Amino acid sequence: MAAEEFADCVVERRKDDVAQLLGALYGSADERRALKRMAVDRCLFSGQLTMPSSLMRGAVFRSLYKKDFGDRSPGLAPAAPDYTVYVNDPTSNGGAVQILMLDFASCVIRADVNGARGLLLAQAASEKETQAFSSLVPFMGACFPKGKSAQLSKSTVMAVIAEAMYREAQAGMTDPTPSGKM
Fold it and tell me: Which residues, at least 6 apart from 140, have a Cβ–Cβ distance to it below 8 Å?
């Protein structure tokens, strides 16, 4: 809940830094600078908040999704975005993992767009969030690439679904022939 409150504050108060994060490539110096500038005291309501940059990204993307698409249901573009364009070095281990995770998240979103939308719009740590997450679990195994394995935390899955859902919604808004409704 603290991460959600923090991200909501950042999205409201640090618009330039959020815009820089949106335009920054994953793993780049620009991304690190944007994330560092977001960690401002006025958004830390009760002391200190420490989280990996990937989870902070996810919290910001979740907040952006709620702000930009929470009151409407944008469609998806016919195909998932090419996530290599959002990564500084797609051939690096970190870049390849980020692309794999975003592709995984897009697959889950496309399998149950309403469940993914419900997950992002639910209050953090609520029963509604737990139910929405549970509704997506059956699709996760089928969406993870064969031959790959990983232990994923709920926070990690939430973070990549938030980023992929935001990117999917943006693509759906710019594509003249959206497929599916959210």
Answer: 104, 108, 152, 157
